[in-house]
Amino acid sequence: MRILLVVAVLLAVGNPVAGGNSLAAQRPSVVRLVNIAGPLVLNGWDRDSVAVRGAARLTVSGPRDAIRVDGGQAGNDAAEVFVPRHARIEVRGGGSLDATGLDGELEVSAATGRVRVEGALRRVVVETFGGGGGAVGNVEIVGPHASVEVRTPDGTVVVRGVRGELLVTTTSGEILVGAARVRRARLESVSGAVSFKGVVERAGTLEAQSHAGDVELRVPPDVAATFELAAPSGTVGSEFGDGGATRRFTTGDGGASIVARSFKGRVSVVKQPGADVDLNASGAAGIR
Amino acid sequence: MSDEPRDPSLDPLVRALPTSIEPPRDLWPDIERRLTPRRRGLPRWLPLAAALVLLLLGGAVLRRLARDPMPGAAPVASVDPTIPVDPSAGAERALLASLERDAGSLSPETIATLRRNLAIIDSALAESRRALAADPGNGDVQALLRLVQRQRTTLLQQAARLPRT
Amino acid sequence: MVDDAPSPGDDLRVDAGQSELVRRAQSGDTDAFGRLYRLHAGRVYALCLRIEGDAARADELTQDVFVRAWERLAGFRGESAFGTWLHRLAVNVVLADRRAAWRRDRRVTLDEEPVALASARAEDPGLALDLEAAIAGLPPGARTVFVLHDMEGYQHAEIATMTGIAEGTSKAQLFRARRLLREALGR
Questions:
Q1: Interchain proximity C153–A174, CB inside 8 Å
Q2: DSSP alpha helices (H): ranges in chain B?
Q3: Rounded to whole angstroms, how far apart are CA atoms A62 and A78?
Q4: Which end of chain C is more exposed for a tag (fewer CB within 10 A), N or C?
């Protein structure tokens, strides 16, 4: 049985901690995890400490307000790290990441494997590069996060349950957004499909574009928005208006702005009752 | 806009109901028996279209081979002179130069990802530019062109931030 | 190794992936149509069951919907998602059945008050199941309008067009349905 190794070391302010297998500290405002080569499992917990489970060969150090966890982990065994749920977490480099139970901020950069984040964070930023290789579900963000940004060259980006702001940009990846309630959203792919199912808040904006992929929006039948749909070398279909290569029309009193464009794919807008309800969400995610 | 407000005491219960209920038995065998046969087969124009596609693809591959006979020695990316200049072009050139310098310290997978996606972007840029030449005032094509240019910059910036080995 | 586990976003990708199945079904491929059936049977059955309030009839109508969809598939041009098109077709099939039923049985009128509603709560402690039972116990007219408006998202004007009743009648039926449901559920 794996044992949770927690060595609680109370740190003097600003004092660096000598490298060790695992470590705890007082209330860190930032936890940085750097170059952890194998799979990384990140768990938010209610303690003001950082801990590593199992035999992961990680080095934990830093001043107490900025803990650093350094990599070295190799092989297929996951490194499981517990971090204060409210902290700002930065993950740089490394392989795949599975983060749960966080409600502060999470910034992931230069990840080369799959990234999955579940929780209710104030802000999530994920940048991956490679690791796609056609793999499905390269990036999956689940939960009522207030702000989500994802940048990846390829693979599939799934965002489920976001509440607030959303930016997803990819070159050849596919973007799938479900159960969303957004104030401001921009979804961009060059060759991949873009699918949005959700609600755009009153006075909110949604811009979904792809050069070569299809763009599909599923919004509530009672949406009040100004729509701008265009597919210069593709086709446009909408359950809200008449045919034509370009469509600009308003529903209700037009509170929100919704733009969907595809250069040569199909743009479609479909009426979807309960568009911001996620029927596949786990109870823990609290998306309803 | 809704024609009638939701009932606050019922709405949460209604939303909690499943939108899907599986039939208690498999209805497909009964349905299948009732389906009238329909003409199957491929459209007559399909073989011709397939031949045309093969011809075009073959030409493209030959042109590519002629231009890039040794993929391993090819630069990370090239700047297409036909692509309209955008405000980030200078920054892009600097990023490209930096990536060319560091190509040896990036993983082969990273280089392959970068090349593959830059090719997609450059093809999209060329397509948008042709459309814009035919219809210069088309705001939608302009917006889509800006999207692709933005993505090119984002991709290069991301690659430039990757850790070097 | 083949991984059969569902992938993230599968449900969101479903509509996009269906266009190929639709194309194959349009050219006569019953296997493709069978896969479309698997994807949509639950949604269609739920609609039939809730409007009809009778499992056996919902079973028959679900079959009718898919047979009708097969017959009309050639006319589907992809201007909406296949699921939306099928759902609209299902509503039409079910409402046609309701109109026929109303003609068959003049005793069922829009003014009928339910007698079974009060017992719904006692039969099952789960609120969701309570609501399903309470909906099933509504008079047919009120049930139809409640399902279409509050569950399926149609507006009164659309319901009036689809069912052939006046828009004011649709509003009155919804008001009645909600009142009966609140009473039945003790809310």
A1: no
A2: 11-16, 28-34, 46-67, 89-102, 108-134, 139-161
A3: 23
A4: N
Q: Residues of A numbered 131-170 whose beta carbons fall under 8 angstroms of chain C's beta carbons: which are they? A: 136-137, 140, 156, 158, 160
Q: How far apart are CA A238 and CA C145, in angstroms?
A: 25
Q: Output the six-digit token pair for B67.
A: 């231009």
User: B63 and B55 in contact (C-beta within 8 Å)?
Assistant: no
Give the length of chain C: 187
Distance from CA of C18 to the nearest CA of A (A): 13
Q: For residue B53, what pLDDT band results from cuts at 50, 70 and 90?
A: low
DSSP state of A118: E
pLDDT at A272: 84
C8 and A137: CB-CB below 8 Å?
yes
Residue C177, token pair as written in the block: 């349905």
CB contact under 8 A, A222 and C155: yes
Nearest Cα residue in chain B from C29: B40
Q: How far apart are CA A47 and CA C146, in angstroms?
A: 49
Query: For A14, what's the count of Cα atoms within 13 Å in the CB-facing half-sphere?
Result: 0
Q: At residue A11, does pLDDT exceed 50?
A: no
Q: Which two tokens stand for residue C83?
A: 């699921």
- pLDDT 10s digits, C66-88: 999 998 898 887 767 788 889 98
Residue of B nearest to A128 (CA): B158
Tokens at residue A257, please?
């702005």
Which of B7, B17, B38 is closest, CB to CB, to C178? B7
Of residues A54 and A269, which shows the higher confidence score? A269
CB pairs under 8 A between A and C: 68
